[in-house]
Structures are given as C-alpha cells and as structure tokens.
Amino acid sequence: DIEDSNAAQGNEIGYKTLLFQNVAGLIGFDKKSLKLTNVKGDFKTSAFKNISGTIPFSAEKDVSIKGNYAFNLKDVPSLLDLGDLSFRKGATDGTVALGGNKKIGFVLSGSGRVNNADATWKKVSANANGSYKFTNDEIEFDPLTLSKGSTNITIKGKWKKNFMDLKIKGGLDVIHAEPLTAAMPLKMNGT
Hints:
Blueprint: E1 4-15, E2 18-29, E3 33-43, E4 46-56, E5 63-72, E6 85-101, E7 105-121, E8 124-135, E9 138-148, E10 151-160, E11 163-171, H1 174-183
Antiparallel strand pairs: 1-2, 2-3, 3-4, 4-5, 5-6, 6-7, 7-8, 8-9, 9-10, 10-11
C-alpha cells in the first residue's frame, strides 16, 4: 500500500557528516515505512547502485537494505575509522547490507574484493589484492595477498582497528620484516 513514490534524479542526500550526490532511483513510502528501489548515487569519488529495501518508521521494526558498491579506497576513512591503516590508491567493489533496528542495534555487513590497493599500516606499505567479508567494524580476509619487492604473502583471518587474528603464508623479504618487528612486539615460532 504505497501512498506515494517519486523517481529521484540527481538529488543530494546528507546524513550526519556524509553527503551522497547524484542520487537517483525510486523512493516510496506508506504509513509504516520508506521503500527504496534501485537507488544509485555517488559518495566523494565512489559509487553505490542497486540499493533496495525497507526502512520502517518504527524503532522496533527491522531495517532491511541491500545493494552494491564500487569504492575508491581513499574514500573509506570518511566512513570507517581504520586506525593506523591508510590507502594511497586502489579500489574495492562488492555487496553491502544493513539490517537491524534502533532498539537492538544495526548490523552493516557485506563482501567484496580489493583491487590494486597501495596500503600502509604502521609505516609498512604493500600492494594488496584479494577478497574479504565485513560485519560492522570487523573485516575477514579470505585471502588477501600482500606484495612488495620480493615479499609475497597471503593472509587469511580477521582484522579490527585494535585486533588481528591472521594466518600468514608466503615469503617475507628480511628488509620488509624490520618495520613490522619495530611497530609491534611479536611472538613468533614455526618453520
């Protein structure tokens, strides 16, 4: 029972400090909720598309939104606090979903692929490629390949701003190991 719907075209939508531009798609509402159908738009130098779902007006009812994104990695810190992780270049694309409600909390989740990222963590830089899944502030790499010079390692595991649980396999050039050991205390063993 949609009471009204509008085809949005070229609009700007702001939420807190975020500004989405060139927003287009079908936006409808009834007495109970706002419905989005095939909404697309831009955020800085990144884009989202195929955003569809329902945003209920009741705090107890669940939000259900899904869609796709293509992000310039330099835009990510505007959305998430990455701690000591930063990007000089690269892209990521994938799917995203928002669920939950105001009463019990919201869950932002999705999956994607990092392509040709120039990433720096605690003054250690490398090129990154691979797939990942995320839920709120946790990212699971499955796998992520880091390379620089003769270093080429594959990482599987979870990362949060202040926590990592990773399995690392590959070859690490000794010259690239020094910044890692200086950046954090490590206990290492193995063959």
